[in-house]
Amino acid sequence: MTANLRYKALLILAVVLLCVYGLIGLPKSLTEARENFRRNVRLGLDLRGGSHLVLQVQVQDAFKAEADLVIDRLKEEMAKARIPYDSIERNDPQSLEEADRIEITIRGVPLDSTAAFRSIVTDRFPQWVLTPVSSTDYRLNLRPSEALALRRDTVERAIRTIENRINGLGLTESTVQQRGRSDAEAEILVQMPGVDDPARVKAILQTAALLEICEVKDGPFSSREQALAKHGGVLPLNTRLVREAPRGGQQGESWYLLSRSAVITGRDIRNARPGRDEFGKWETDFTLSQEAARRFGRFTEANIGNRLAIVLDGQVRSAPVIQSRIDDAGRITGAANEQEAADLAIVLKAGSLPAGISYLEERTVGPSLGADSIRQGFISGIIGLTFVVAIMLFYYKQSGVNATLALVLNALILLAALSYFEAVLTLPGIAGIILTIGMAVDSNVLIFERIKEELAGGKAIPAAIDTGFSRAFLTIIDTHVTTVVACAFLFIFGTGPVKGFAVTLIIGLVANVFTAVFVSKALFQWKLARSRRLVALSI
Questions:
Q1: Mean pLDDT of the 142-168 span
Q2: How far is CA 172 from the centre of its chain?
């Protein structure tokens, strides 16, 4: 065996071992190897079974929140400029179609303050269009380009948040992506293989998880009316009334008067985890970022003896008294059990949703469907592969063995690549594998037919093999490159199943170039090295 052939053999052996390791690792028994293979080759929803959800992001919530933020800022700017007004309020769009029609109405601006008011809107709020309604009333409308950007950003943020929450549950094989091409639909597709009961996942996804830590100005009150009566029916400036979340066994209601601006929000949380308090009850502990910790430390140090409310999704979860300076840690009590505390930690770490979500579709795919698909696909694949191998062996005799070994190695590389990339195998992916096998056979046919032509032209066996591979190589590369380009467009513009088909086909084509050209030629060279006086090639 020549040195060049020895290096080729070592490279092929290294590729085989690397593929085997990626599929089964280093098992100590056949059972462990089988379990490792099942774990490393991840099956999609259509094969494994699981849950299929279609969510719709209530984009109008994001538009309302944006308008409320503008109203607060506008009030502050007008107060600084000493511009009086009668009222500033927004409309209330109730559907996705009406979200773009969000508008803010300002009434009662004096005529002598018109120029100053217009200057504030132009300089501070360029995303909004100011339209006079009367001599003292005005209307603000969001620019179409800004509305489109807000709608798109809301959906993208919702996808990232939902993906983080699902990953926090350990469902790393899930798929979260936008459904359809229209941003106006605001639909998200969530597929979770292996999840038979999506109730817990739905509860986690639907939780807004908007966390605020606010200063308590007054309370608790037994009712909203009592709180308003104490303050003459009008809330103090920059305050709000928030109800306490009901607890088991609690009678009546509790209301707190809180500062409108939060000291800490969910964006300031660095980490969250379930824990137990000094009485053994479950709670959710959270850690703040460095900047938030410094801000929180200064606030708590200046307000020792006062109350601080922890507000989650618009309800007060607890209102403890500040005993000492608190820097970078806090806790949310009241969890009924460990799972509730852990679920709250997941949504806090993932961040709050930019808008509410609703469920348009929910389907649970039973594992029996997946098992049936796998069984039928396996049977059809074995039958097709058997026919292909039989024809190759019958028509090309011993050279057909080279093609068969190349096919086996091609499939091994493909499955190992899916394992290393943590890709999910679906039914369209299996279709891509089958098409890869067909193209692999086609490559071998091109090479073998070219070798036969060279032999028929009177060339020696080694020269015929070299010429056959070299001349067929350009044709193989041409066909594979064009197919890879087509698959790239499928991956860019296609949905999940189409992308799965494209990924498996691209991996298979790359592997096929290696097996059909490099491995198959090495096998021919090995045969020639064993029989230096070979007078006829079985092809």
A1: 83
A2: 9
- The mean pLDDT value for 160-166 works out to 78
Give DSSP secondary structure letters for 390-436. HHHHHHHTTHHHHHHHHHHHHHHHHHHHHHHTT-EE-HHHHHHHHHH
Query: What does the alpha-carbon distance between residue 172 and residue 161 come to, in Å, rounded to a whole number?
Result: 14
Residue 77 and residue 124 in contact, taking contact as beta carbons nearer than 8 Å: yes
Cβ 241 vs Cβ 380: under 8 Å: no
Q: What's the token pair of residue 448?
A: 């073998």
Report the alpha-carbon distance of residue 286 to residue 255 in Å, rounded: 25
Are 140 and 281 contained in the same domain? no
User: Are the C-beta atoms of 143 and 128 separated by less than 8 Å?
Assistant: yes
* Rounded (10°) CA dihedral 45, 46, 49, 51: 50
**133, amino acid identity:** V
Percent over 90 (pLDDT), the chain: 5
Q: Is 279 part of any domain? A: yes
- Looking up residue 227, the CATH number of its domain turns out to be 3.30.1360.200
Is the same domain home to 480 and 381?
yes
Taking the C-alpha atoms of residue 144 and residue 93, their distance in angstroms, rounded to an integer, is 16
Q: In terms of Cα–Cα distance, which of 80, 92, 59, 60 is closest to 124?
A: 80
| 258: enclosing H helix or E strand | strand 255-259
Domain CATH code at residue 77: 3.30.1240
For the chain, the average pLDDT equals 81
Whether residue 168 lies inside any domain: the answer is no
Q: For position 250, what pLDDT does the model report?
A: 59
Most confident among 137-151, 285-299, 361-375, 454-468 (mean pLDDT): 137-151
* Angle CA 219–225–230, to nearest 5: 55
Answer whether residue 348 shows pLDDT above 70: no
Residue 127: which domain range?
Answer: 59-147
Nearest C-alpha neighbor of 380 from the set 391, 372, 370, 368: 372
Which pLDDT value is given to residue 401?
86
Give one word for 222, left, alpha or beta, with left for phi > 0 and alpha for psi -120 to 50: alpha
Q: What domain count does the chain have?
A: 3
Same domain, 229 and 312: yes
pLDDT at 71 over 70: yes
